User: Fold this.
Amino acid sequence: MLHARKILALVILFTLWTSLSFAQTGILKGKIRDEFTNVLLSGVTVFMQGNAQTVQSDSLGIYTFTGLTPGVYNLTFGFIGYKRKSIFDVMVSNATPAILDVTLESSSSELNEVVIESPKFTKPLESPLSLRTIGATEIKRNPGGNRDISKVIQSLPGVSAPVSFRNDIIIRGGAPNENRFYIDGVEIPNINHFTTQGSSGGPVGLINVDFIKEVDFYSGAFPASRGNTLSSVFEFKQKDGNPDSLRASLTLGSSDFATTLEGPLTKKTTYIASYRLSYLQGLFKLIGLPFLPSYQDFQFKLKTRFNTSHELSILGLGALDKSKLNFAAEDTESNQYLLANLPENNQENYTVGAVYKNYRTKGFSTVVLSRNYLNNRADKFKDNNVNDLKTLDYGSTETENKLRVENSSKEGNYNINFGVGVEQANYQTSTFQYVPGGLDQYSSELDLLKYGLFAQVSAPYFQDRLNLSLGVRFDGSDYASNMNNPLKTFSPRFSASYNFNENISVNFNTGIYYQLPAYTLLGYRVNASAPLANKGVDYIKSVQLVAGIEYNTLKNTKFTVEGFYKDYSNYPMIQVLGDTVPLANLGADFGVVGNRPVTGVTDGRSYGLELFAQQRLNKGFYGIFALTLYRSEFQDKRGVYVQSSWNNRYILSMTAGKIMKRNWEIGAKLRYTGGGPYTPYDIAYSSLKSNYSVYPQGIQDYDRLNVSTLKDFYQVDLRVDKKYPFRNFNLNVYLDIQNITYNKYETQPQLVLDRDGSGNSQEIPGDPNSFKTKLLGNTSGNILPSLGVIFEF
Assistant:
């Protein structure tokens, strides 16, 4: 409450100071380079939509716009012999110059003259469909996103998330562990705090949006250089530190505090670094929640351009996460249930990496060296009494050391990319957990070597009307003999796009993709002295087909329709609490996924239709409409196809906003999804005293896998921003409200003890071996306002 009062006081103070705002003289500048050779380009024409200025880059490749009114702009870059390029939603303020460096790709079909026109959408040759690009400005202003990239992604087609406060990303009906994330080419295992080991997701995003230039999201048609994924690839492209002077930003939000610094270290080296500290623990305690999470994270990037031929980036990010139980929470049945089941949890993770690029006459080589680390601990006692039976004592570490070398070049009209990657991984665990039927107790260590080879060739034909791309990939591992033959994971992929004109194109892709199961599954042992139990598993395989039509109005608006089909095979079936379930149905909850014996494999499929419309900023308006209709299903233990846990069937997302006069901006977002499937409990088995005493929750009856369905879910979010430009700094005050309609959403009921009037547990009459239990309705959904202040110096 004290923080909220301080923030409100600042809002009032700076509202009164509005009349003191100084002259608005924003500057936008940057350097323009050849994408493949890094050569600075002079004479490039830069057109700014909605502004009379048109400038050209000078002999050093530098372009500059001056005297700009602070706001958001769209730019188009045109140069003889190069493809036109558009950049949307570039933020300009008057405190410091905005820096936007751009690369252009040469093209033999663009030789005669530069045509100045409105910005238009472009697409790469390698992935002409299933690719969406999100700019930093879009992320920051997304209603309900609260500057969290993981939440903003949920506005895109094909993307759903569990009906909860978690950020698990589910793409086109695939499990949340089927996604891969890269920052400037460095792979990171997860982009959220409090990650689920063996899967992904978490309640709070990890990446600082102040670092981001743009995000490329592939829901299909993955480039051959990106392996070990079945559902999506995310490429987070970071900006470089400011090369001219020191800059800083300070963000005070309802849940955390963050600061970012950037500037030059030398004439050739820039840096950007941030630190964030949450105060969720205090806020949750104040409102009486039974769990108290807290987190810290850091992020940095150093960039050195030795000359036009050599550059080196060193980057890193990491987090410290802690979650404790609040035994002073109100003694409600729901709080009792959560306190009885949630462990106290500590996590540490980091990624550090170096990216070296060597540019030559026709292309460049890239060397990426990185290290990932995760330390995960969880503890639980019966009745939350440290002097009673310890029911969970879990500790685990994952370490990955990776090297990737690739070459990108342009030979005439052909874009060529090829390379190799090698990875050494170490997984260790000490697992002790009482579960129905006995005790899981083992220690395990696993050393693993993985490798991959890839190549892709892309080219336009018939004056860029027809674009074709062919890629291949091979992967292998020394985990088992059946994984050590890269010919078994031969992964071809083919894309084609035909442009009828500048407005309409048809696009197609097909490919085969492979993914290695999680370390938690590969490193499982029955007991400490036993051999690895899951040596018989293989790479999970997915054959995919995507086709679509795109219509581009050339006025910052595009429409796409895409159909997709994903066929899965070799998906592990694992033993869970004495029963068998496809691994593809697990992963969107706290804890650990995959540390169970594999009982076999199964097949699955997901197919559907996506409709997408996007209005980039035009006359102050912007918006996104995304509708996905699909079905996701896997074979159960009897070999019968049943709906998967991610089969929401339909997903609707609509986002719209307006930039108004005097630096006001307002936006709203609606999300509507079909209710998710769930597996009912085996109440009789769950209620046995021998089970409920050590596992006080419902045990799913997997003979009825996903036969029940939750109610549909919807949520409306609202965001209002007000910016105050001053001579030496900018102030942004925002109000972000999630679930403004106060909709209550439904999740699976909780199985709790049916206590007597004195709060004591009861037996089932005539059955002294079983507790009397009941199902407790489990609904949630509060109005979540976030008031924040951002200072930029």
Confidence is low (pLDDT under 50) at residues 1-23. DSSP finds eight helices and 45 strands in the chain. The longest helix spans residues 2-16. Helices lie at 2-16, 136-141, 149-152, 280-286, 333-341, 519-522, 683-686, 689-692.
